[in-house]
């Protein structure tokens, strides 16, 4: 023991060595400060700190950003859907709310920024947290903020998280999203540069939709086939999307059909007004910020943009109206959407930006649309929404009056053969009172008035 202690350096030797080392470190720092730019120094120190943290920390962190490679990150959405299902005593704060004015029995739960939630899965202890960062330049999806979820786990569990835990989250989220109670309708806000959403509570369903029964059945079958054919679309090399064109006179139920489709499939709606889009590049940016399992709705496309028509048609219309084509062209600072840009997002390379999507166009004047927009592959299903037939009237009578037959139906049937009346007009007449006989008699008088007007116009 004495020999061991005798071999130890003296205190003065230790202090001398420490002083020499300190002087060397100070000299190195001075040289580094004088010779290496600050940006490079910061980079070196950050890498050095990360290396120390990696080797000495037992934890690993997964970062799930809100967007991924310029599109909405499905993993982020899956985590956002999954976490409220595991909220328990481990959460230190929660956001709660309701979309209904009624007292909610089960308010919606959301994760606030900074909240930490622990989860246990197959023996692993996992910790989630939501982070919010300010970005120097905002984009159409974040309005200046960037959100991300952080998942902390043990380094030894990293591969297991990738192999089993994340697939578990995807599966749970898919089940929840397919049965979600609240749908949303999003509209693009040009001034704010992003989608703004509201709860979608439209009551229309296929059961209440006033439409030709045969056409309705065909659409339902088409939709059910579409959502079940993911493998088919992958096998044939096509994007998992479907294009619809709804056309017909105003008031024939085009918007109600869109609502019925959304309610049946449980798809959110992105309502895009093309006149609010300034260029093809902005259109691409807008579309990539939409989510899977959604409907992109472009209403009144014949009015929304002249890109939906060819130049010959535009020139003929302008000549009839006495307009100069140069007066109608968009300014160089706001060029608008071109026909090629519109076509590229319907079936070009940019149409493959997501899965399980419906693109629905509506118009009152199909004849005004360019033929290139209507070809197969861009419009997969052409749906004509016509005037009210007797079969459609019977559906409306069943919905509004809760009757399947009445002795006045034969008179109504004959009158509907002579005049054109929209389902919206019929619905308005059937809502006028609660007295059945009076409603039907009033409706007959309404139809007779239309017959009289038709005869006067013909004469």
TrEMBL record:
<dbReference type="InterPro" id="IPR050747">
    <property type="entry name" value="Mitochondrial_chaperone_BCS1"/>
</dbReference>
<dbReference type="GO" id="GO:0005524">
    <property type="term" value="F:ATP binding"/>
</dbReference>
<protein>
    <recommendedName>
        <fullName>AAA+ ATPase domain-containing protein</fullName>
    </recommendedName>
</protein>
<keyword id="KW-0460">Magnesium</keyword>
<keyword id="KW-0067">ATP-binding</keyword>
<feature type="compositionally biased region" description="Acidic residues">
    <location>
        <begin position="317"/>
        <end position="327"/>
    </location>
</feature>
<dbReference type="Pfam" id="PF25568">
    <property type="entry name" value="AAA_lid_At3g28540"/>
</dbReference>
<dbReference type="Pfam" id="PF00004">
    <property type="entry name" value="AAA"/>
</dbReference>
<dbReference type="InterPro" id="IPR025753">
    <property type="entry name" value="AAA_N_dom"/>
</dbReference>
<dbReference type="InterPro" id="IPR027417">
    <property type="entry name" value="P-loop_NTPase"/>
</dbReference>
<dbReference type="GO" id="GO:0016887">
    <property type="term" value="F:ATP hydrolysis activity"/>
</dbReference>
<dbReference type="Pfam" id="PF14363">
    <property type="entry name" value="AAA_assoc"/>
</dbReference>
<feature type="region of interest" description="Disordered">
    <location>
        <begin position="308"/>
        <end position="336"/>
    </location>
</feature>
<keyword id="KW-0378">Hydrolase</keyword>
<feature type="domain" description="AAA+ ATPase">
    <location>
        <begin position="240"/>
        <end position="389"/>
    </location>
</feature>
<comment type="similarity">
    <text>Belongs to the AAA ATPase family. BCS1 subfamily.</text>
</comment>
<dbReference type="InterPro" id="IPR003593">
    <property type="entry name" value="AAA+_ATPase"/>
</dbReference>
<keyword id="KW-0547">Nucleotide-binding</keyword>
<dbReference type="InterPro" id="IPR003959">
    <property type="entry name" value="ATPase_AAA_core"/>
</dbReference>
<dbReference type="InterPro" id="IPR003960">
    <property type="entry name" value="ATPase_AAA_CS"/>
</dbReference>
<dbReference type="GO" id="GO:0006950">
    <property type="term" value="P:response to stress"/>
</dbReference>
<dbReference type="InterPro" id="IPR058017">
    <property type="entry name" value="At3g28540-like_C"/>
</dbReference>
């Amino acid at each position: 023991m004495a020999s061991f202690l005798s071999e130890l350096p003296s205190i003065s030797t230790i202090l001398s060595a420490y002083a020499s080392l300190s002087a060397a470190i100070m000299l190195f720092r001075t040289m580094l400060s004088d010779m290496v730019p600050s940006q490079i120094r910061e980079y070196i120190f950050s890498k050095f700190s990360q290396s120390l943290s990696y080797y000495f920390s037992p934890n690993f962190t997964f970062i799930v950003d809100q967007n991924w490679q310029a599109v909405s990150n499905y993993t982020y959405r899956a985590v956002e859907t999954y976490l409220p299902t595991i909220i328990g005593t481990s959460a230190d704060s929660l956001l709660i709310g309701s979309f209904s004015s009624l007292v909610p029995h089960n308010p919606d739960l959301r994760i606030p920024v900074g909240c930490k939630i622990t989860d246990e899965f197959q023996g692993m202890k996992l910790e989630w947290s939501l982070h919010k960062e300010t970005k120097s330049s905002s984009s159409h999806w974040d309005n200046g903020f960037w959100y991300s979820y952080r998942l902390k786990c043990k380094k030894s569990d990293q591969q297991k998280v990738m192999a089993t835990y994340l697939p578990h989250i995807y599966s749970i989220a898919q089940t929840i999203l397919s049965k979600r109670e609240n749908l949303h309708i999003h509209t693009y806000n040009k001034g704010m540069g992003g989608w703004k959403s509201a709860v979608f509570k439209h009551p229309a369903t296929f059961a209440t939709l006033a439409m030709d029964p045969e056409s309705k059945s065909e659409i339902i079958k088409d939709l059910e086939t579409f959502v079940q054919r993911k493998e088919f679309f992958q096998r044939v090399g096509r994007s998992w999307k479907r294009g619809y064109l709804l056309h017909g006179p105003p008031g024939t139920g085009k918007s109600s059909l869109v609502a019925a489709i959304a309610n049946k499939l449980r798809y959110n709606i992105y309502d895009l007004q093309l006149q609010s889009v300034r260029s093809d590049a902005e259109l691409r940016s807008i579309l990539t910020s939409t989510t899977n399992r959604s409907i992109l709705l472009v209403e009144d496309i014949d009015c929304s943009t002249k890109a939906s028509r060819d130049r010959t048609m535009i020139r003929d219309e302008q000549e009839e109206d006495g307009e100069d084509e140069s007066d109608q062209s968009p300014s160089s600072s706001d060029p608008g959407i071109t026909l090629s840009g519109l076509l590229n997002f319907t079936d070009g390379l940019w149409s493959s930006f997501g899965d399980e999507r419906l693109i629905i166009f509506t118009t009152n004047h199909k004849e005004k649309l360019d033929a290139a927009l209507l070809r197969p592959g861009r419009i997969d299903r052409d749906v004509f929404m016509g005037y009210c037939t007797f079969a459609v009237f019977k559906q409306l009578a069943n919905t509004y009056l809760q009757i399947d037959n009445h002795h006045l139906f034969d008179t109504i049937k004959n009158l509907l053969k002579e005049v054109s009346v929209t389902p919206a007009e019929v619905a308005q007449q059937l809502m006028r009172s609660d007295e059945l006989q009076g409603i039907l008699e009033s409706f007959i008088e309404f139809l007779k008035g239309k017959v009289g007007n038709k005869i006067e116009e013909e004469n």
